[in-house]
Specification:
Elements (H helix, E strand, L loop, with lengths): L8 H4 L4 H22 L1 H10 L20 H6 L14 H4 L1 E6 L10 E5 H18 L6 E4 L12 H9 L2 E3 L16 H10 L4 E5 H14 L8 E5 L5 H13 L8 E2 L2 E4 L4 E5 L6 E2 L6 E6 L13 E7 L10 E7 L22 E2 L2 E2 L14 H10 L1 E2 L8 E2 L16 H6 L1
Parallel strand pairs: 3-4, 3-5, 5-6, 6-7
Antiparallel strand pairs: 1-2, 8-9, 9-10, 11-12, 12-13, 14-15, 16-17
Helix pairs in contact: 2-3, 6-7, 8-9, 9-10
The structure holds zinc ion.
Length: 419
């Protein structure tokens, strides 16, 4: 197989709909050809449906394939893994590492195999994400994500920030399930932000919120913080405003402070983000994956703005590859040009309020009530009443209000520990 040439990020998302679609078509043909040769699960699907490589000429031909479910992958993750061929380039066939899904939907983390090619693609994707949200080489980013029991996408973000040139400080809090040698408390994390004059905070939304509450109690100085990137949990407008008020009381500059959410998932190996606060989230890697929203029953594509099954098709993967893979999320996307920044096509996946695992709108959710999962709402509320084993005292948080109760939600700290 031939390596596909890298794309310049600086102008890619501003290219025309047709240009982006042509890149997707070319990469889709390449991806499907690889599956025909070296991915057993899809070899079986192609054989069963009597499909040939020539049946896949444009990205619309993905509709010839059935939806792949999490259960399909759970049954045999190795069937989705590349069988290396002698003519593949080393970077395409060498295993770099294995990521795992969080197991939120199925209860069991699923291995996701990454070759060297895949690892570099993820670095590229997350570097786009960080640049997009406003990170710069001059920033000191405080990484408030916890260490998990299994390699996870959030561990990639610090590497991407360092590739960008930023300084990264990792307190490594909430590691209660691991050896205590590397664990720091909530208070120590607050003091590290002060000591290193952190300018950007990244981490789970509820943890950042709790840290800001504790920082106020300690009278900390966060005057250098200018950007907060919560992820992994709902962070609606009210929560952001509360964070903003606390940051201002901690000394942040009101004229230079933004709180922009990001979200991603293992299967995407990328993260989406907002161009401006509450704008909806952009799909920043249309060259790496093609997104669809399908009717839950018929699996037919739904029009823009209509919530349905969120489905991913890889366009440039080597290790684990999925085609038409339903993540278990409900979401809505748009192909319209973003009114905020003018980005094109899939890049303008302005999601009104129900996005992967994050609620980002002030408006009520457009997902029908019948499609929501109230149990997750109550679980989300419970998860906010928590204390860090590394902190000296428990803090009772008011409940986070999520309008949409998105079916997929990254686990809380306690859920990480159980997994
Ligand atoms: Zn935009």
């Amino acid at each position: 197989m031939q390596e596909t040439p890298p794309l310049a990020y600086t102008d890619f998302l501003y290219r025309s709909h047709g240009e982006i679609r042509e890149i997707q078509n070319q990469r889709f043909r390449h991806q499907v050809a690889l599956c025909f040769r070296a991915h057993p699960y899809y070899q079986d699907v192609f054989s069963r449906l009597k499909l040939k490589p020539a049946d896949f000429q444009s990205i619309e031909d993905v509709q010839k394939l059935p939806v792949t479910t999490k259960q399909d992958m759970l049954r045999d993750p190795e069937a989705f893994r590349l069988i290396p061929q002698s003519d593949f380039l080393p970077q395409e066939r060498i295993l770099w590492d294995v990521s795992y899904t969080t197991g939120t939907t199925t209860g069991i983390p699923v291995p996701f195999f990454n070759t060297t090619h895949d690892f570099f693609a993820t670095l590229e994707a997350l570097q786009r994400f960080c640049l997009f949200l406003g990170d710069t080489a001059n920033d000191t980013v405080v990484n408030l994500y916890p260490l998990t029991l299994f390699p996870h996408l959030t561990l990639r973000i610090p590497a991407s920030l360092m590739a960008l040139g930023a300084s990264v400080v990792s307190p490594l809090t909430d590691t209660s399930t691991l050896t205590s040698s590397g664990q720091r408390s909530l208070d120590e994390a607050v003091r590290m932000i002060e000591r290193h004059q952190g300018t950007v905070l990244i981490g789970m939304a509820s943890y950042i919120r709790r840290l800001l509450m504790r920082a106020e109690q300690l009278g900390a100085d966060f005057s250098r913080v200018r950007l907060v990137q919560p992820a992994g949990e709902p962070c609606p407008a009210g929560t952001r405003e509360e964070m903003r008020r606390r940051l201002l009381r901690l000394g942040a500059n009101p004229h230079d402070l933004a709180i922009k959410i990001g979200f991603g998932c293992t299967e995407l190996q990328a993260a989406m983000g907002e161009c401006v606060e509450l704008s909806g989230s952009h799909h920043l890697t249309p060259d790496q994956s093609y997104l669809e929203v399908l009717d839950e029953q018929s699996h037919t594509p739904l029009p823009d703005g209509t919530p349905g099954l969120f489905v991913i098709t890889h366009l440039d993967r080597r290790g684990t590859v999925v085609l038409r893979y339903a993540t278990g999320d409900l979401t809505a996307i748009s192909h319209q040009v973003c009114p905020q920044c003018g980005r094109q096509d899939r890049a303008s996946s302005a999601i009104p309020c129900a996005s992967l695992n994050a609620c980002c709108s002030t408006a009520p959710c457009s997902i029908p009530t019948s499609s929501r999962r109230p149990s997750l709402l109550s679980r989300a509320s419970k998860s906010t009443r928590s204390s860090s084993p590394g902190s000296r005292e428990a803090i009772l948080l008011p409940p986070i209000v999520c309008w949409c109760a998105s079916p997929r939600r990254k686990p809380s700290r306690s859920e990480y520990e159980r997994t």
